[in-house]
Design a protein that fits this description.
six-stranded mixed beta sheet, disordered C terminus, serine acetyltransferase, domain 1, serine O-acetyltransferase activity, transferase, alpha/beta, 2 domains, UDP N-Acetylglucosamine Acyltransferase, domain 1
Length: about 325
């Protein structure tokens, strides 16, 4: 009796017409809509690695809150050292990958690039105690400025503003050390988690408190002084975006606000352009501001009281 022929194996690529889709995608990728870096760089920083780096750094900075649960006075230093060693090794590799995107490193050998990345990672490590001091000042500002805050642990574990500022303090240090791509990566991870969008280039002084937080936007060239407090949906943005002769927006111009010490900016306020908010001023909720105000001003919708200070009539805090 003749053997029956087996039916042909199922071919999913034929069923979906994958050959045509793959060909069209190749044409889009290689000819029509190219997104690849001009130099064809394929080795990119890893989001997973960056998340691990931030988690490791956070654990090293605040081991009793984010580290191992069984730490003791005798074991905490070993834990911090072990965590930093593995985290800085991972950071070194991600810095090496990110440096390749900078014009000054495009012709560097792999050895030179790795050596420079190690120097940056080592310097960054030595800045961690100062970064921790800034973060503690932010945490203290949150505890002092929020009547709902019960204790420091609640702030460290629950406050999105502190979470965002942890990322920003780390990212800003890397930005200043010359690794802007990796710095932006770190802050965008916090942006996704908290809704707080801070460019790593923004300079923010100690004791900075973001209450509630959702929708806060702080631009690249913003400068914020000490003991500043902002609420949800505050924007420190640019008023205009000049373009060069090639139509590309000019990069790096100082185009965001300067906020001096002891300023309070309430919910929904929008401050645009390279304007200065004088120290001790209060900007009320939903104010749209495109000009500088002197120290001690109290700005509410449609009204500026110069030198008055005090609390704005509508703080929009919501508890």
């Amino acid at each position: 009796m003749p053997n029956k022929l087996s039916p042909p194996a199922h071919d999913p690529s034929h069923e979906w017409g994958l050959a045509g889709i793959v060909a069209d995608l190749r044409a889009s990728r290689e000819e029509l809509h190219r997104t690849r870096h001009p130099l064809g760089i394929r080795e990119l920083p890893s989001r997973e690695a960056v998340v691990r780096i931030v988690n490791g750094l956070r654990s090293a900075l605040f081991p009793t809150h984010y580290g191992a649960p069984d730490l003791t006075a005798e074991s905490v230093d070993y834990y911090v050292g072990h965590t930093l060693e593995s985290t800085l090794r991972l950071l070194h590799e991600q810095i090496r990958r990110a440096l390749r995107f900078l014009p000054e490193y495009r012709e560097s050998s792999d050895a030179d690039l790795s050596g420079r990345a190690f120097e940056i990672a080592r310097e960054f490590g030595h800045q961690l105690p100062a970064i921790r001091a800034l973060l503690v000042s932010d945490i203290q500002a949150a505890f002092t400025g929020d009547p709902a805050a019960q204790h420091i642990t609640e702030i460290l574990l629950c406050y999105p503003g502190v979470w965002a500022m942890t990322h920003h303090r780390l990212a800003h240090a890397l930005h200043r050390l010359g690794v802007p791509l990796l710095a932006r990566f770190i802050n965008e991870i916090a942006h996704s988690a908290t809704g707080i969008d801070i460019h790593p280039g923004a300079t923010i002084g100690p004791s900075f408190f973001i209450d509630h937080g959702t929708g806060v936007v702080i631009g690249e060239t913003a400068i914020i002084g000490e003991r500043v407090r902002v609420y949800q949906a505050v924007t420190l943005g640019a008023k205009s975006f000049p373009a060069g002769n090639d139509g590309v927006l000019v990069k790096g111009n100082a185009r965001h606000p300067v906020v001096e010490d002891d300023v309070v900016i309430y919910a929904g306020a929008t401050i645009l352009g390279r304007v200065t908010i004088g120290h001790g001023s209060v900007i009320g909720g939903n104010v749209w501001l495109t000009h500088s105000v002197p120290p001690g001003s109290n700005v509410s919708q449609g009204k500026v009281r110069e030198g008055s200070g005090g609390e704005a009539p509508d703080d929009g805090r919501g508890g």
